[in-house]
Design a protein that fits this description.
The structure is a homodimer.
Chain A (H helix, E strand, L loop, with lengths): L19 E6 L11 E6 L4 E6 L7 H9 L8 E9 L5 H19 L6 E8 L6 H5 L2 H6 L6 H7 L8 E9 L2 E10 L12 E6 L5 H12 L6 E2 L9 E6 L11 H20 L7 E9 L2 H13 L1 H8 L6 H9 L10 E4 L2 E5 L2 E2 L5 H8 L3 E7 L5 E8 L3 H7 L5
Parallel strand pairs in A: 4-5, 8-10, 9-16, 11-15
Antiparallel strand pairs in A: 1-2, 2-4, 3-10, 6-7, 7-8, 11-16, 12-13, 12-15, 13-14
Helix pairs in contact in A: 6-7, 8-10
Chain lengths: ~400, ~400
């Protein structure tokens, strides 16, 4: 598959996170000739936090992870992820697959079964051939190295056209703390809690509850602020693992919180940049709403509108469709106070087209691969920013014939 | 433009409605070489009811119609509609255009200005060149005939590929009452109150309040149950006109109510059949929900899901995406009670793929141009049926380069 034109130039150099090792393998769950399983193992005492899809039909691995979070943190922890099959809507067999996989990891690695977290991503409703994964566990265990995070990012891809990674380092009390994360996601992207599959590792020292609070808070401003197609996955999972190996306590540290936010936002943006068929990366920034919730309604109505997204694909400065999306959003809006900007160009204000509107200038702006749509409702101080991509023939091509 | 493959074989023979006349003309509002304005005039005493978009950015004509409904019914009534420009988000100039048009009709026809209803459909945010319409009013007035309803249906089209009409006749107390309706609509279809432009005429005798109650009730089960692209228009308007010329009082008559419902449903289905780029007409029938509202949430989540709609376009029996849509809908759902049918084929039940699922049989079914997706939530007696179409390359083609 052709790499998204919005992809970063290269996968970043991710720092080693002391206390975490990785390995990946080709288990042939569905895809051939590529890796499709990754196993990460974190040192005893690591704090593990997570956020997950709110879907009412969420998968067996998601339910298992949710039950395990916040348990006894004294043992080591493991994360086992496969692509090619989501183990969602697989009934009792799905639960049995999770039990078999987590027990097999525990037997092999001495990680307590209550600390073995799994995720599966791919087709919904097919039984997971977990024996194929179990057959690779010994190799995955033997092959653990600190440096293999990029291979892990590749192993969890489905329709992704590039692996996604991001990192940050923070100095706290003169000592350095490292954060590294990977993600997968391209379609079925409209997170309602967490999104897609995201794994973030840090050597910071922080308790489970404090880490969970940070992750939940940042999630609401990062992964919950992106949408590719308004469809919410049954498998969305984010896990953050803090090994404490740096010995640096970051509890309550604002710099660490900001760095973690940056890594999450970077990964969230990369998911949008790999949106199925995407040719434009679009920031929708809404201000002046009655409150933040209204601003988010407007931003998401714009970001999810097929008519807005196809106009952007066609490089058409069709600001009337922004008006439409504001109108349908359900948020409080006053036509005559609304203003709309494409980049720095004010296209509409005071309930009508801006007096110095230039079709030529606006059309030229629409040719950029990265666009900013600004909407000010003129009512209050509520604001929200979300990120999305356009809707192109590529999206139809991918989804009219891929059983995902 | 190629006519939708889902179009009816021909425009129906609509009955003459005693007390209503029509004419259409080419005013050159935007389109060239076609009619783009229609004027209908109804006899004095006609009851006029209507439902309109709930959009917060609804157009000047919508606001004017809403203000006029329920006024003094003693005079004649007029409906003036143009295509090519929606007069939405046109600020004070938009209001001035409505005033100019309604006053010009009143001056020419002796219809009280408070009974002149207008609608405009097409591009948002451009000033309406209302002088071009006013220049045609004398011709439109002189040309009024009872039989010209089909030409009126053509004049109000925008991206529609065929004109839409439907009719019914009902016998009440041994006498016949006629109903005839026309509609336009193809994209920006996700009604939240009424939808698109719909005009229904009857010679029945019925008061304004009784007619309004009927129209509002039926609207909720017809036009409010269709979606093409989840985008709600700024111009959606439905007007129903009862001239009373038959002398048959239908107040409280169940047969008349059913016939009116049938005409509205027929027109609603025709809008879906002309959905931009549509190749499949899809009925989504949800049963077993906790309540009707939950059933509707699930039905609309399925009908609006880009992943479901692209799978249908690809004739892919991808029922996993139905599971996804149920999960994201926000309705109460229990994975293990859910069952899914494509036509008569049960594809999933008891939280997993049906035991006798046949990929070949299901794939064969997906090749039909008309599909029924049945979902039973297994929780209660709530139900909802909605209608939609698939999402194809045609939708992208139309909307990536049409400034509508």
């Amino acid at each position: 598959m052709k790499i998204s034109p919005l992809a970063p130039a290269q996968f970043p150099d991710l720092p080693v996170i002391a206390g975490v090792t990785f390995a990946s393998a080709a288990a042939g769950v569905k895809y051939q000739n590529r890796t499709d399983v990754m196993l990460a193992i974190a040192a005893p005492g690591s704090a593990v936090a997570g956020v997950f899809t709110r879907s009412a039909t969420r998968s067996a691995p998601v339910l298992d992870c949710q039950a395990k979070l916040g348990g006894d943190p004294s043992g080591a922890a493991a994360i086992l992820v496969n692509s090619g099959n989501s183990n969602a809507f697989t009934g009792k067999m799905g639960v049995a697959s999770v039990t078999a996989l987590t027990q097999a990891v525990a037997d092999l690695t001495a990680v307590p079964v209550g600390r073995v977290f799994t995720a599966s991503t791919g087709v919904i409703g097919e039984p997971l051939p977990h024996d194929r994964i179990i057959a690779k566990l010994a190799d995955l265990h033997k092959g653990q190295t600190e440096a293999a995070i990029k291979d892990a990012a590749r192993a969890i891809m489905t329709t992704d056209t590039f692996p996604k990674g991001a990192s940050a380092s923070v100095t706290v009390g003169g000592k350095t703390v490292q954060i590294a994360g990977i993600a997968k996601g391209s379609g079925m992207i409209a997170p309602d809690m967490a999104t897609m599959l995201v794994y973030i590792f840090t050597d910071a020292l922080i308790g489970q509850k404090a880490l969970q609070a940070l992750v939940s808070r940042h999630n609401d401003q990062t992964f919950n602020c992106i949408t590719v197609d308004s469809d919410t996955s049954t498998s969305d999972s984010l896990l953050a693992v803090a090994t404490g190996a740096s010995g640096v306590d970051v509890t309550g540290n604002a710099d660490f919180a900001a760095a973690l936010h940056g890594v999450m936002l970077d990964l969230a943006h990369q998911v949008v940049r790999d949106g199925e068929g995407a040719s434009k990366f679009v920031t929708v920034a809404v201000t002046g709403a009655a409150d933040d919730a209204d601003a988010r309604k407007v931003a998401m109505a714009i970001a999810n509108s097929p008519l807005v997204k196809t106009a952007i694909a066609g490089q058409d400065a069709n600001w009337g469709r922004i008006v439409m999306a504001v109108g349908k959003s359900g948020a409080q809006a006053d036509r005559d106070r609304l203003s709309i900007r494409f980049g720095d160009i004010t296209v509409a204000e005071n309930g009508w087209r801006a007096p110095d509107y230039s079709e030529a200038a606006t059309s030229a702006y629409m040719k950029n691969p990265e666009l900013v749509i600004g909407v000010d409702l003129g009512l209050g101080s509520g604001s929200s920013t979300v990120w999305t991509c356009d809707l192109t023939h590529g999206y139809i091509d991918i989804n009219a014939d891929y059983r995902s």
